Amino acid sequence: xxxxxxxxxxxxxxxxxxxxxxxxxxxxxxxxxxxxxxxxxxxxxxxxxxxxxxxxxxxxxxxxxxxxxxxxxxxxxxxxxxxxxxxxxxxxxxxxxxxxxxxxxxxxxxxxxxxxxxxxxxxxxxxxxxxxxxxxxx
Length: 138
Hints:
Layout: E1 2-5, E2 15-19, E3 26-30, H1 33-60, H2 69-77, E4 98-101, E5 106-109
Antiparallel strand pairs: 1-2, 2-3, 4-5
Protein name: Thyroglobulin type-1 domain-containing protein
GO biological process, one term: cell-matrix adhesion
Transmembrane segments: 42-59
């Protein structure tokens, strides 16, 4: 004799089906109440974990820091037409001191706000100017 569990239609209810392969009839017995009590905390713990994980994913985007001006400028043109200038931002989202325009080959130094510093632009094919590190930038 083999026991088969029927699909559970209610999270806390189910039936065990005893199958006698020599007969065509089946008997259904309710699940042991003690077993039912043991399942309840597991089900509740599982549902709680699912709720917490989904909440973390839902709130994850809202908890990110707002984009910096450099990141907004970069993101506005990143999928733009070919050859457009794309600002370079560091890991904190600030403009890197030296900016490059890949399609023209020119480079220049910028302030913390991304403004080009006069006299620092180098034409294509020449060595780029060494820009001051971020600590001493204007």
